[in-house]
Amino acid sequence: MNFLCTHRLLRHFCAISCLLFLAPLLSHAQTPQLYSAVEDYLRTQTKGLPGKSTYSIGQLDRRTELSPCNAFEPFLPSGSRLWGKATVGVRCLGPSNWTIYLPVQVNVTGNYLISTRAMPAGYVVGATDVVVRSGDLSRLPVNVVTDQTQAIGKIVKNGFSAGQPVRGDLLVDPWAVQQGQNVRTVSNGPGFSVSSEGKALNNAIAGQVVQVRTASGQTVSGIARPGGIVEVSH
Predict the structure, then answer these.
(1) Same fold for the pair 109-172 and 175-231
(2) Assuming Cys at both sites, which of 34, 67, 100, 219 could form a disulfide with 96, CB separation 3.0 to 4.6 Å?
(3) How far apart are CA 209 and CA 220, in angstroms?
(4) CB–CB of 164/115 below 8 Å?
């Protein structure tokens, strides 16, 4: 009797051991499909990045045990971006319900601008003040400028030293209209065009609202345009 009980216990133990052994094998058998889904996701999501993008996917922890999955859904965690060191999540859509996260590295090689000379705050950037360089954009400051048209004619908000990458968030558009400037208000409509002189009451870049005091003392609002023009709607 004791022998029979012992034999049955051994059989149950072997069966449970086999199941425990097979569980990680099932998870590792899915690894190629999981990585393929993440690679397809990265290929699609990095198409819109400036320059040439390359990426690599980190290894899944070998101790991770995943239940069988028929479909994977990669996603980008909230607040993350595919730039430099990043993380991609993967959800199982069935029949199991689990989520894992994989480390990825996204490198973007492209052009960027550096300053050729020191530029103090308030300086207007000219064509000779910047030069194009090429490198890994993911290792540079956020908002690095990648095209000369994004910098030339802009005003430096904070000073740049020579050889520094030019950042778009440290540049501002020049004032189209400045406070106290004499401006011309223009109002156009079907069959008529009216213009008058006035004085700007605030600074405004092109496209912003500016208030103008006319010669008659009336205050009107309009849209600032280059050349000291203010478009007034009626």
Answers:
(1) no
(2) 67
(3) 10
(4) yes
Residue spans per domain, the chain: 14-108, 109-172, 175-231
Measure the CA–CA gap between 147 and 71, rounded to whole angstroms: 41
- CATH topology assigned to domain 175-231: SH3 type barrels. (2.30.30)
Partners of 44 in the beta sheet?
A: none
Q: Which CATH architecture has domain 109-172?
A: Alpha-Beta Complex (3.90)
Q: What is the pLDDT of residues 99-146, one digit of tens each?
A: 999 999 999 999 999 999 999 998 999 999 999 999 999 999 888 999
Q: CA-CA distance, 23 to 215, in Å (whole number)?
A: 85
Closest CA to 31 of 55, 75, 64: 64
* Predicted confidence (pLDDT) per residue in 56-85, tens digit: 999 887 787 888 899 999 999 999 899 999
Structure tokens at 221: 């609002």
CA distance 168 to 82: 20
Q: Are 88 and 41 in contact (CB under 8 A)?
A: yes
pLDDT at 23 over 60: no
Note if the pTM is more than 0.85. no
